[in-house]
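STRUCTURE:
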């Protein structure tokens, strides 16, 4: 009888483990969502892994206690206790591993949170008037680089025009060319290091996108507008803005929208933007002409702009920046 009980509980437990493994897989974005089917999978796993074996053991022990000929042996009790310990420990371990799964080599930590929380409607309200003003002044130009574009690129609020091209760079971008847009998957701090592989790879892809022969280029085509949207908290903002400025033509503009305290704080760079005054001071030191600074979300009567959401436009004065 003991062997029958062990076989029954073992088979049930193995079925539960298989179901739980399938239910907790995270191979795709769809599997990350807690759906009804996955919920039922966890319920069935619990039934096969815990409930049925427990019922089987309790029934066998009750039968044995009611029939002196089949007395409960210490080995049976130890088997039951050991099984329950193993089952619950395995469940706790699996839940912990599922909830705190370490990153897989090659996996991008931003893939599961790629700028989705940054409302496109709010950004349209903030940047729409800025882009309209720049367009009316012919201040956008034909080559726009959107750095840290995220899942909802604000550069797409700009109108498509003949000859205008967009380069969208993000650490979690899905690399592709689509019409007038090139999407680059890259860490911007790595791309700005000219000796890095990321830099060379980006240059090759950009030249192909712009229809340029890399070997025949005497001077690179420079951008007319750079956009930084909700990225300066996560990078060394001085290095990134200063490095990207080398690819901006004289008279070109940068458009920045940033809230220093907003975002995934554990991912913030130690050299990220902490105060808006630091950004403005840096731009002035680097000889940028700050054309406008707006604080559209500042509370009425507030005077401290250091940690408010800023929308800034600046023009590159000289070739030396």
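SEQUENCE:
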């Amino acid at each position: 009888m003991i062997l029958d009980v062990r076989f029954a509980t073992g088979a049930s437990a193995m079925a539960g483990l298989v179901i739980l493994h399938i239910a907790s897989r995270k191979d795709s974005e769809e599997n990350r969502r807690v759906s009804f089917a996955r919920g039922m999978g966890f319920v069935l796993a619990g039934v096969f892994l815990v409930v049925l074996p427990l019922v089987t053991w309790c029934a066998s022990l009750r039968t044995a206690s009611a029939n002196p000929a089949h007395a409960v042996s210490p080995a049976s009790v130890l088997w039951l206790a050991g099984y329950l310990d193993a089952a619950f420990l395995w469940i706790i371990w699996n839940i912990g591993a599922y909830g705190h799964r370490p990153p897989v080599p090659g996996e991008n930590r931003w893939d599961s949170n790629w700028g989705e929380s940054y409302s496109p409607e709010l950004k349209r309200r903030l940047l729409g008037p800025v882009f309209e003003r720049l367009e009316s002044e012919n201040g956008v130009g034909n080559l726009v680089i959107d750095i840290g574009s995220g899942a909802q690129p604000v550069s797409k609020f700009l109108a498509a025009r003949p000859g205008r091209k967009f380069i969208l760079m993000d650490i979690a971008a899905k690399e592709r060319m689509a019409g007038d847009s090139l999407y680059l998957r890259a860490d911007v701090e790595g791309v700005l290091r000219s000796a890095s592989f990321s830099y060379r790879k980006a240059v090759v892809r950009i030249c192909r996108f712009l229809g340029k022969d890399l070997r025949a280029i005497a001077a690179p085509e420079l951008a007319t507008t750079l956009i930084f949207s909700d990225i300066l908290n996560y990078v060394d903002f001085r290095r990134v803005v200063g490095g990207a400025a080398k690819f901006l033509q004289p008279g070109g503009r940068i458009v920045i929208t940033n809230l220093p305290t907003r975002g995934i704080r554990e991912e913030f760079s130690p050299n990220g933007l902490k105060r808006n005054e630091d950004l403005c001071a840096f731009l002035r030191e680097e000889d940028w002409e700050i054309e406008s600074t707006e604080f559209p979300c500042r509370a009425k009567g507030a005077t401290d702009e250091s940690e408010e959401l800023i929308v800034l436009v600046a023009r590159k004065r000289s070739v030396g920046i």
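REMARK: The longest helix spans residues 36-66.
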